[in-house]
């Protein structure tokens, strides 16, 4: 419509539209915008536009095209490297993400908090636990970046996936900031994956005490009891969830088909009615 009215898109227009494509996962639309940039003489992209274009491809899963944009950029700042590292990490290319982080350091570009989220995520999903711990410890000591709750969450998830639940729980206990629901959820998920029911009960009690217990925690705990054959406790957890009026937010997925983004939602897990006494279910 903009072009039909005789107006010409500028950098701000491209940044806004590419950002929307990234949030929606609208890869076809993003590619069309990229082609439009070429038609307007922007064959070489750098700066903010280049970073947003790279980020769009990475978030939409087109990692190779993101890498092409990255390689074509003459000027790369912390946002350029961070978008590429995060994209590689999110799509199972942990080794490539860590190699790029090493290149970033050699180039003299100072990483920020978001960069380390990508690095820790890469270590988490690739199973590089020791590398992840080294990078986490180096954040404040070497780079002057104070870890936030999101970084602690990545490390807890990483340790939990590796079965190192003692270390994960110790880290949560020693955190200088209050653990949030996702951190407790990561630890609870690890307990379920490795069959640590007693530890999971302790985690749920802490979550309830900190008022961080959410629907996901109740569902995980209920499923854990059911898998162990303790069906009475599984039912009581679901009853407690209903009594506390905890609603599970339906899961949501987006998929692009023929240029149109479609949204799908899952049925809430607590849609089955349960009644009865819910006291002392742990």
What topology does this entry show?
Layout: H1 11-24, H2 27-39, H3 47-59, H4 63-72, H5 78-90, H6 94-106, H7 113-126, H8 129-143, H9 149-161, H10 165-174, H11 181-194, H12 197-209, H13 215-227, H14 231-243, E1 252-257, E2 260-265
Antiparallel strand pairs: 1-2
Helix pairs in contact: 1-2, 1-3, 3-4, 3-5, 4-5, 5-6, 5-7, 6-7, 7-8, 7-9, 8-9, 9-10, 9-11, 10-11, 11-12, 11-13, 12-13, 13-14
Q: Which runs of at least 5 residues are low in confidence (pLDDT < 50)?
A: 269-282
* Widest beta sheet: strand line-up: 1-2
Percent helix among the residues? 55-70%
Question: What is the first-to-last residue Cα distance?
Answer: 60 Å
Describe the biggest sheet?
A: 2 strands, antiparallel
Give the oligomeric state of the chains in this entry, treating copies of one chain as homo and distinct chains as hetero.
single chain
- By DSSP (H or I, 4+ residues per run), the number of helices equals 14
Proportion of residues in β-strands: under 5%
Average pLDDT value? Answer: 86
> Class by helix and strand content?
mainly alpha
Element-by-element helix/strand order: HHHHHHHHHHHHHHEE
Instruction: Tell me the overall shape.
Output: globular
Radius of gyration: 23 Å
Secondary structure tally: strands = 2
């Amino acid at each position: 419509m903009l072009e039909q009215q005789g107006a010409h898109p500028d950098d701000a227009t491209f940044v806004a539209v590419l950002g929307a494509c990234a949030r929606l996962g609208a890869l076809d639309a993003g590619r069309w915008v990229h082609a439009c940039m070429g038609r307007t003489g922007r064959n070489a992209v750098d700066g903010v536009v280049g970073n947003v274009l790279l980020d769009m491809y990475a978030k939409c899963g087109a990692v190779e095209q993101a890498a092409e944009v990255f390689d074509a950029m003459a000027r790369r700042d912390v946002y350029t490297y961070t978008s590429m590292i995060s994209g590689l990490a999110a799509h199972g290319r942990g080794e490539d993400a860590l190699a790029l982080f090493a290149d970033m350091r050699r180039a003299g570009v100072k990483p920020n908090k978001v960069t380390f989220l990508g690095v820790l995520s890469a270590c988490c999903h690739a199973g590089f636990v020791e590398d992840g711990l080294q990078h986490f410890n180096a954040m404040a000591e070497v780079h002057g970046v104070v870890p936030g709750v999101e970084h602690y969450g990545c490390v807890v998830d990483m340790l939990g996936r590796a079965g190192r639940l003692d270390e994960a729980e110790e880290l949560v206990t020693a955190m200088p900031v209050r653990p949030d629901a996702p951190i407790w959820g990561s630890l609870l998920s690890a307990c379920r994956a490795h069959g640590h029911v007693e530890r999971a009960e302790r985690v749920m009690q802490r979550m309830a005490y900190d008022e961080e217990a959410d629907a996901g925690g109740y569902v995980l705990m209920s499923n854990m009891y059911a898998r162990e054959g303790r069906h009475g406790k599984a039912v009581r957890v679901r009853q407690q969830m209903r009594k506390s009026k905890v609603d599970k937010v339906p899961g949501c997925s987006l998929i692009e088909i023929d240029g149109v983004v479609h949204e799908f939602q899952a049925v809430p897990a607590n849609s089955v009615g349960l009644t009865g006494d819910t006291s002392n279910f742990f």
